[in-house]
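User: Need the bound-state model for zinc ion:
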Amino acid sequence: MKKLTDGIWTFTKLRVGRVYLVEEADGYTLIDASLPNAGKTILAEMAAAGLAQERIKRLLITHAHPDHVGAVPALVAATNVEVIVPEGERAAFDGEAAIARAPGLLKPPRTVLQGMKADRTVADGELIGTLQAIATPGHAPGHLSYWHPDKRVLFTGDVIFHTRTMRLPYKPLTVDMAMNVRSIGRLAQTVEPQMLCFGHGQPIADNATEQLQTFARKVGAI
Ligand SMILES: [Zn+2]
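Assistant: Bound-state model below.
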């Protein structure tokens, strides 16, 4: 695991789909759950870092895509985690609806998630521990980003990717790109982060606010 700042870590041995751990007064909040085989790695990395898995309280999901929810069944089986899912992603998360896809020819196969059930949902503006949900629909219809106001850390989920540079999420996997761009504008106009933590790619800790603003302008979001 890598400590990003006091009380916030990320996992370093996961292949796809970044997972974060935030220390709260009553225990740990995980953000997202990577791929199905990631459960063991998440718990092993925590143990190696001296972070007790008994202290995992919550798992906050940004959106119901397979590379962000994969380890949910394994974590539920191994810990007392409460699984908290965006209101607008609950049906897809619980497997009641297929994952929403963009219209067009490059459609990925129909995907229905299986084996998971949200313990509760979270909506725009709500506080879960110290983290505040910010509605950022577009990549997925009910996508939420999470904001840590004290540490000024923004967890973007898949609204923005960071693969070498900041970029828009993959088009075939994004249900409404224009809406996603508006969500980037909302983030750029709502928060002034000290650190950007993405669903894919390395966090950004240098000039984070400026970099977010520059990217938002580049994609025409502000
Ligand atoms: Zn995604």
